[in-house]
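Render this sequence as a predicted structure.
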Amino acid sequence: MASTEVPPEQPFVPVITGGDVGAYSLAREFHEAYGVISAVAPTTVNRNLRHSRILQAFPAGPMTEEQPVIDALVRVAGQLRRTGAAPDRPLLLLASYDHLVRFAVRHRATLSAAGYTVPYPDEESLDAAALKENFYALCEQLAVPYPKTTTYDAGSHTPEAARRFAAGLGGTGTAGEDDESGVRFPVILKAGDGGAWADIRFEGRRKVHVVDQAAGQDGSGAAEIERLVTLASEAGYTGTLIVQELVPGPDSQLGIATFFRDGTGATRLVSYGEVIVEDHAPGTEGNARAVLAGQHPVVAEQGAALLEALDWRGFAMFDTKIDPRTGQAQFLEMNPRLGRNHYYLTAAGANPAPYLVEEYLAGEYLGADTVTPAPTTPDCVTTTGPALTTTIPMSLVRRYATASQRERIRQAAQQGRVVRPFSYPADRDVRREAYHRATELNALRVFRNHPAPDA
């Protein structure tokens, strides 16, 4: 059996935080491209990582507080350099969540001294992109469609401010005396700063709250919004809270648009995926379970314009949703990193690993025979599909897919492009296969108890 330790002769090491499908996908992609073993720093070694031969796990404990995360990453660097490896071999840090990207950027000097390359822009650029109120202001400036939105400043919360804000919703007045929102129910409430939101707890807290006109104990959507902004503020959240009109329609109208823009300002990669269905169980809601790679030229153009305005460098991912009333794709948010469900890129023929190596490690390690290297010219690669990635049984995929998507899924299957990220032939282990098969089958029960809206 192959060793699960990073070999000392390996010329560079991807260091990946997290233990979910996104973290494993990155380890798989680097192994597919270069045959390298990745170092993965999860909270604990879970069954997504156990018995894998393509990664070495360095459990780091809870990864919500800034300094403990940085201390853990410095320890990982030290362990990787105590193996007889060259003291200057680069460690390429890849963060799985927005708050970990921010931690890395804030402590770039410390991490660089430990041997890390941090492939993310500075904190000012992060604020312009990842803080939702700034992102929507940029969408407004560039005429990029986004759902009608208003904001609440939790840092200035008072009971009266919460009451006035909620009373102004519903399209009947203002969200505060001077802020005309025109936002109508049903709405979603979410944090402007997802990293800060991950650190707070209150009863009933969700990643995204959906509130309709008849919500709340008194049958009032406004009362429910008032209750939620109060709970969030009293729990210690001090950022902006976003209240946004809910774009109607099933999960199959959601999209993931991933871009890579290099340091010269050239957009090198555009890849669009249609979400077939997401989780709707509390605690995991919003996690895509099946993604169909395809194309959306308008989203490609608009996403590139946003990155140009931000002067972005590196990977970025946009969440979108097609509004059935207009046929337009509404931009929901931007993540300053590869997303959890990014393996659809590789399934569609655009492994992200060579883009990262070429851009941030000067292309020194592009000699692998197992993958076509990322282009060395500014030409843009646009993936076309069809290719499907899934972590649920195909019966669920077909149930929630539209007729058009089912046809393209059939084409993908004929071409051998239906992929399960955890099912990697080079990392086959009967214990892992049994676990992931059982997890797939358990999805049938989860979706029965927490069904997604049907197409």
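Summary. The chain has 15 helices and 17 strands. The first strand starts at residue 13 and ends at 17.
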